[in-house]
Input
Amino acid sequence: MQPIITIEGLGKTYPNGFRALNSVDLQIRQGEILALLGPNGAGKTTLISTICGIVNPTQGKVKVGGYDILRDYRNARRLIGLVPQELSTDAFESVWATVSFSRGLFGKAPNPDYIEQLLRQLSLWDKKDAKIRELSGGMKRRVMIAKALSHEPEILFLDEPTAGVDVELRKDMWQMVRQLRERGVTIILTTHYIEEAEEMADRIGVIDHGELMLVEQKTQLMAKLGQKQLRLHLQTPLEQLPEQLDGFSLELCEQGSMLLYNYDSQQPSHIAELLPLLAQQGIEVKDLHTHESSLEEIFVGLVKGAKQ
Output
């Protein structure tokens, strides 16, 4: 399957010399959810803005649906819906007029039934005649999402879409994201809520200092980089570990009442050897459970490693 977005050697340097993007290569598959993670100033918004034609690249090429974003801007842009970080709507227009007008900007024929369905999905139907300035911040965010989807795009960009919004909107949005993916819409999101990326994304991209550090299937990334830990709660605290356990990666904590065994998820764990050996040393285990690195822990480790 051909990628719906192809990025080759993309770079952006601002007049003050700040390099926001540094030779980014990326292919985004049709119908996937790609989450871009990175600290503030990493280049996430610049990357999205460049693909959407808001920021002109300094170097490189971007194609959206086979259309070059510079040479064939109109055809590329009509495939894209964008929900930016900043709220920007006509404060004195009604919700219905704002969303309907946005659809018309992309040359789409009027479709009141679709606009109604969209507003109902976003719990905006009872506000359809309200002026934008009368809405709360969360409702304005819903209007921005409705505008982005008004022309039925094949690609949806969500730039920090749930930052500062209520739990209800967050749930509504992710339900809509699932429905859009089922219809084949490609979704690219940036987020600081890593648990959302962990739950929703098919692939994870990590960007820092304008460089795309990696792009991996979420499950493969966590399997490759995730560390597992066996936590053993001891019946009787230990002052120190017996020499017979030196061959294992063990650590005493909680005043000697817990034993931690760290191991690589891709390597044999040797737990079957460890437990009988503990019994031979008279160490009784009261309880045990395993812990696997979360996506947040993996992300923090990658960024820290890049800065060293």
Q: What stands out?
A: The longest helix spans residues 167-182. The chain has a mean pLDDT of 85. The chain has three domains: 1-79+154-226, 89-152, 227-292.
